[in-house]
Amino acid sequence: MNRVNPVIFLISLVISLLGLVTLLSTILGNSFTFGWDNIFVKQAVFVLIGVVICLGAVNFDFSLLNYRPLVLGLYLFTLLLLIITLLFGQEVNGARRWMSFLGVQLQPSEIAKLTVIIVTAHIFYVERKFTEWFKLVASLLVVLPIVLLIYLEPHGSMAAITLILWFVTVFLSMKDQLRNILLMLIMFLVFAGLFALTAFAQPAYLVVTLVGFIVAIFVYNTRENWQIPVIVAVVISIILGGVGSILWNNVLSDYQKQRIVAFQNPEANANSAFNVEQSKIAIGSGGIWGKGFANGTQSRLQFLPFHQTDFIFATYAEEFGLVGSILLLIGYFALFWAIFSIALQFPIHDFATVVLVAVGLKILLELFINLGTNLGITPATGIPLPLMSAGGTITIVTFFSLGLIQSIIANVKNSQMYKPKS
Description:
single chain, 3-stranded antiparallel beta sheet, 69% helix, globular
């Protein structure tokens, strides 16, 4: 039986080919030569390796992730990679985020995001003798060393995303989703208001915190069995707000602060917002139909920084215009539709379903953050565009993730526990 999902596999391959075409357009010229130093050649090799790994992951027996020694080994291996990178990794612009292996740069933090999802889901669904609240705290304690090591590289945005993925996996794993949504809303409003007040020094952000407390009071008086979780959520969000203030004033680097402030007020932070402004110029200059293949001036003339990695969407939009951008987004939409529509057919509270949805959301989150950065609607974070941006680790991990998703689909469909909804 063919375990490959043709929609997921073919769409991911087409998007990767569009990324290769965009990369090729940025390097064509009189000095163009094929070789390992050529970024197009490198990325083509990574895509090929990724496809092979994807097909291999499709045949992976997903039930092995219920095996505690295997998950523990994955966790320790990830920690080891992060420690080696922090101590001996290649330093670029003052950060140690990459380690060299056989002449190829490896970014362990990309692997760490997938590890966090698998380990957290394993704790919730395999370790059945503990309460879900105990598992929440235990999984957080397990994940924090990974988050801390990533932050120390330093890579604050990646550390934040890793923590978000832990939170998403926990949210999917815990019962009573309506309660979880309301608690998440309370925590977000209270924390965001307190942190924004510290970061931007504008009293108006107190309104956000006030709304959070109003929601908390409403939920507290709605259901008696939710009162303790509401109190815990408010206390935690206040503590996180205080920790956020401490981090802002004493830990975050100036460039990290500037990125956040530049997002909130670009005019007052022109230097920090330069990359994003150049990205918006490139996207706007593409017009309806684009300037055509290899005719993008912003990227070819080096006006657009990181045009082959973080801002490859702006490069693509400049050359292929609004029409090309819409077609690309339709491709991504079809990919996620194929993933999540299948997930909805599976049992809601199930180990396989949680990993499937969490891994899908991981890729979706990376897409959202990258496009948001390119369009100037989210702070610049340095997160690459899945399947499009140049980069070996992100390409291979994304293809492996898609292979794992297809493996889960095949395994669950063949399981006696699978009961599709009518």
